[in-house]
Amino acid sequence: MLSEKEVKQSVPESLQRLSNKEMPATKKTTIKKAVKTEEKKKSPDVVDKQLKLRIKLKAYDHKIIDNSAKQIIDIANRFGAEVLGPVPLPTEILKYTVNRSSFVHKNAREQFEMRVHKRIIDILNPNQEIIESLRDLNLPSGVDITVKI
């Protein structure tokens, strides 16, 4: 923790006018936070973030989505990129209950469900060749793919 003298020395003049002793405690903490954020901005040890290509796959059939994920990983490995995944996400189960008859038989019902399987693949530091080959990739119908950079 910084003492009040250190805070006053490191705070710009515009903020020092606000740092009277009559000021409530919440204002002093905001001044300290402002000083800490300025110190973080000045530090040269900030590491550049790696570029990451996040690919989300969705499908109703788990076999198709696994084959599609394998194709994407093969393409990324062919060009020498680091791949994280495929990470299986929880399966979304959509359940529907329907009356069997239209009018009288309320107790006779049918239940249907749809399962949506999901996978995430992260490609670290992708180059232009990987992006172009993923753009030209033919995935089977029934696989929804979203790509975020």
Backbone structural class: alpha+beta
By DSSP (H or I, 4+ residues per run), the number of helices equals 5
Radius of gyration: 28 Å
Order of helices and strands: HHHEHEEHE
- Summarize the amount of helix as a percent range: 25-40%
Description:
- The chain has 149 residues and is of the alpha+beta class.
- It is 36% helix and 32% strand.
- It is built from five helices and four strands, in the order αααβαββαβ.
- It has a four-stranded antiparallel beta sheet with strand order 2-3-1-4.
- The chain is flat.
Short description:
36% of the residues lie in helices and 32% in strands. Strands 2-3-1-4 form a four-stranded antiparallel sheet.
Features:
single chain; 149 residues; alpha+beta; four-stranded antiparallel beta sheet; 5 helices
Topology record:
Layout: H1 4-10, H2 13-16, H3 25-42, E1 52-59, H4 62-78, E2 82-99, E3 109-124, H5 128-135, E4 143-148
Antiparallel strand pairs: 1-3, 1-4, 2-3
